[in-house]
Design a protein that fits this description.
The complex is a heterodimer. Chain A is about 0% helix and about 60% strand. Chain A is mainly β. In chain A, strands 2-3-13-12-6-7 form a six-stranded mixed β-sheet, with no helix packed on it. In chain A, a hairpin with a 3-residue loop joins β14 and β15. Chain A is elongated and about 85 Å long. By secondary structure, chain B is mostly helical. In chain B, α7 runs parallel beside α9, α12 packs antiparallel against α13 and α35 packs antiparallel against α36. The chains are: A mainly beta, B mainly alpha. Chains A and B meet through β19 and β20 of A and α6, α8 and α9 of B.
Chain lengths: ~280, ~800
Amino acid sequence: MNFLIGAFKPACNISITFSDGKTRKQVPVKKENGQTVMVPLFQSQENISGKISIEPFQGKKIEHNGVKVELLGQIVRELDVPGDIYERKTYPFEFSTVEMPYETYNGVNVRLRYVLKVTVSRSYGGSIVEYQDFMVRNYSPLPSINNSIKMEVGIEDCLHIEFEYNKSKYHLKDVIIGKIYFLLVRIKIKNMDLEIRRRESTGSGANTHVETETLAKFELMDGAPVRGESIPIRLFLSPYELTPTHRNINNKFSVKYYLNLVLVDEEDRRYFKQQEITIYRLQDS
Amino acid sequence: MLSGAEDEEKWLAEGIAGIQHNAFYMHQALDSNNLREALKYSALLLSELRTSKLSPHKYYELYMRAFDELRKLEMFFKDESKHGVSVVDLYELVQHAGNILPRLYLLCTVGSVYINSKEAPAKEVLEDLMEMCRGVQHPVRGLFLRSYLAQITRGKLPDIGSEYEGDDDTVMDAMEFVLQNFTEMNRLWVRMQHQGPGRVREKWEKERSQLRDLVGKNLHVLSQIEGVDLGMYKETVLPRVLEQVVDCKDDLAQYYLMDCIIQVFPDEYHLHTLETLLGACSQLQPTVDIKTVLSRLMDRLANYAASSADVLPEFLQVEAFAKLSNTIVMVIEAQVDMPAVGAITLFVSLLTFTLRVHPDRLDYVDQVLGACVKKLSNIPKLEDSRATKQVVALLSAPLEKYNDIVTALTLSNYPRVMEHLDNGTNKVMAMVMIQTLMKNNTCISSADKVEVLLELIKGLIKDVDGAYVDELDEEDFKDEQNSVARLIHMLYNDEPKEMLKIICTVRKHTMTGGPKRLPFTVPSLVFSALRLVRQLQCQEGNIAGEEMPATPKKIFLLLTQIIEALSTVPAPELALRLYLQCAEAANACDLENVAYEFFTQVFVLYEEEIWDSKAQVTAIHLIIGTLQRMDVFGVENRDTLTHKATGYSARLLKKPDQCRAVYACSHLFWVDNQDSIKDGERVLLCLKRALRIANAAQQMVNVARGSNGPIILFVEILNKYLYFFEKGNEQITSAAIQDLIELINTERQSDSATRDTASDAFLASTLHCIQFQKQKGGVMGEKFQSIKL
């Protein structure tokens, strides 16, 4: 029995700690199984360093062909030449100024992860592998050009409106300010909402798969306006779980955001106009 | 299926339950200082207000529930130590709510705390709240939300002297805020008219009307802002409010708001912005009940004028009358469809205003009446009873104000207005005039005014064309004519010349009255003329020699003509009495021929017109009585007249009447204070003749009924005997008296005598009198001693 148990148990405990693990910012990440775990946060050009400890279980010896740590898809560091580990052995590691141009992204059909992978290679019994997720967020400066979105739309002899959003690029904690001006109203409007929609497209060419989610539904107006009425927009983005806009990441996927202005009439017919906006992450000042 | 009302009750109950449910959790959150939960449940609670199912009335109930809960939340927000979030952050946090209505209620609530904290200028917070509230365009929900905004910002406006006033926060901002809220609320309110469910439109309009005070409340708040002085009101507040009122083009709103403006702002402001205010009036929808609005304005101004004499110059300064008057004329011209009653109501209000503010300006009063005449020019006779009522009010107002009909008589348009009344109302109005005159005991003392007055009340004086005589109630007619008769006595001047003119004028009018009226009016006129005669008679000595316009002779001539008019009625008995009155007056004036002429008329009437025996008895006694008092006649004339009188007396139908007339005639021959008329013999003849007739009467009764008649005639004759005996008529002796007494006693004791207590008592008194005279002693006592009882 004992043997059997031993055979299915890992031979050792591998722990990965980051050098500034106690002070580094941790952010929640939803795992595939739905659980949320806290992971450390990095950004591009940072050093990723720490220690990896391998501790065999009592009285066991790990015979290995080498120990390595990889920053997946990127870099491999050989930590140890082949040999035996009898007791706890700690390897410091460091990947300095790592280029991580893409942010961690957790989508419907696509995830962009950063993972540290420690491999203890063995000639028999299979290699022992340990993973450690961490998160990457990259910050953008204030865009030098940020035009407002202004547009006049309508259905002939039925509804004619002009709307304006103060910017075309919003950071994650931004506020959308704007207004809707009613030029002609011949339908009985019940209410008007502003929606934030995320469009995630994966694959390319014929295999492109698009998933659209409505992240926010914000009521702008209650009741029917008359001609000449001007309705204010003030939508705080902070309560919503947004990510920056991602465009054609590694030819694999894109994430785009849209503002969808929806008018609903008394027969529950919907009239809408969708406008793309860019979301970016602004460095906290 | 539930009916509409039951449905509503159900929905309201559900809404209240929803509020209570969420309020429970909100309270828990508040108690445990859990901001997140508090926000969550307050938003849920407020979501109940998103309903569209309730009528405004029921929605109000729901709103009040939510309102109470929001007070608790506001207290919590105020205390940062409880939730640990700065008010600035809180102001953002509540805006995360996805539904607009809960979001805005929460925003207003935090906004109030924000202003209170002074962390931002009040002006900025107010402006932001005002702007954000635009998101609710649903009329009922919007109205209540903005009402909440108005409510919660009360006392937080940067008014003069308020703690929220600052360099950048001025009363202008406070005013701007309220004005804007007013404008937006009114727009929402007006919009409701198009949105009610068609089938219950009427009910909906009623409910809409119930919401009006939410809108009007803003005007009240404006009037309460200390810093809004006359200047600011004139320059900004009023023009802005009126712009909104005029532009909304909704009659319900226009009427209510105009009235509201008039009621909430001070009278002084109205006076100084009259032009603007009135300018707006003429721009309102034609269906607006503008007359009530203007009437209320004028009432208020009139009361203001009455409050202190100091303010009157202001009225003159702003030419209040001219402005009001012009507006009314304009409004009436513009609103072609306005019924006459509306226009006249306006004139009544203007008149009331004028009478209170400019009591000295009769020309204004006349002007108002003139305008009314103009309006009525195309309506010959009013048929609308309400319009008629207003005209009566219009015409009565000056009478009441001046307590003096004379003033009304100087108003040239007064009679012209009256012409538009139907005959019945015209009479009512005429009666009012007469009553006013009576009440104030006013004399109309010039012929001109009399002319005007009689023209005014002509409905009473004569038959107007087209009036049905049979429509008259006999009682009413009598009342009216009695009033006219009384009125004639009020037409009086001390100056004979003028008085004669007055009499001629009255005569001219009353003579047209026709047979039904003359019996009422002629006596008054006759006595009025006789009063003048008496007056002239007193003055005669003083103004001798002058060319007299009014002489008794002339007047008597006139009187003859007046009384002759009664022949058309005919009313011979009345004419006879009046002639006798005239004769007596002529007697006093020493005009023998005139007096004789009157008596001639009297006898002619007696002979030709008076057929009824009872009337004859009355007439003959009147003639005898009058003739007895005449002292103007010479022997010949007197003889003729007394002869006639005695002759007619003896020819009366019934014996007792004959008897009484004949013994009455005895006085014609013995006048106490006239020595020339003491013809004892003819007195005795009369009495003897009376006795004969009494005997004959007695016999006739005996023949007819088999019993003796009453002895009353004998007792009466005995009294005459005693009278003349006492007066010293030698022809009446004590023996004759004694004989008569015995005769009476015999008659009484005869078997067939009818006992009659009245005669017995009379006899007893008579005998008692004789006894008394006897005991008196002296000459008279001695004289009576010879009568033995």
